[in-house]
Amino acid sequence: MLKNTITFLGTGGGRVVVFRQLRHSGGMWLNLEGVNILIDPGPGSLIRIFERGFDTRDIDIIVVSHRHLDHSADLNAVVESATESTKHPVSMLVCPKDVVSGDEPILLKYLRKGIKRLSIAKEGKKFEYKNIEIDIKVKHIHTGAETYGLEFSNRKKKIVYVPCGKFYEDMLKGYSYGADIMIFNTTFVKPKGNILHLSAEDVLQMINTYKPKKAVITHFSLEMLKSNPKAIAKRLQRESGVQVIAAEDGMRVSF
Ligand SMILES: [Zn+2]
Ligand SMILES: [Zn+2]
Questions:
Q1: Below-50 pLDDT ranges, the chain
Q2: Which fold has domain 5-247?
């Protein structure tokens, strides 16, 4: 039987941590029954992919939750590498419209040929590939970038990814209950009214609502690193009764 794994190529979030590389960045590599999905290829993704023993040419699907550079800066490099200069296109790119069109698209025009199927994310949409379904779930409120939460599932497993954004009520309704893994971009320890990112307090509410089998916190700011993500995860676990893991660079979780 094929094993399902998710590898955290990087765990940094926020300007200082990512752009001074206090933690790696580069997104997550999800292997769901042999299908390889690269999620949020931020700065360094290309390097981290090979460093962790993967090969870009094995990528089936690339997913970008939103166009901010910490989630998309290596998109072009990865597509170039994965497709050998567009000769062997990747099967699908899932992303909001502003990643591929508008005044300042992230994906370079010449690389569009490197994508077989362009799937534009909108709340409620579902995209299928082989035995996998990618569901576009909650629309997030996030600075100047269309942002969506996503779920990846097959008949047996479900992974939920809650990317960056301000906490609001719909986040407690739109996602699935009891996922195998629920990943939260937990940038801050406490909510910061004017900064549109999730905090550990918000995440606790979501864990208590959705009761995943396992929760992972990642995408840490400097403040979060100073507060020790492991200690925060422990507290969330104690208060929710759900297993909570603080991601580390290169961490691989099987499920
Ligand atoms: Zn962002
Ligand atoms: Zn971010």
A1: none
A2: Metallo-beta-lactamase; Chain A (3.60.15)
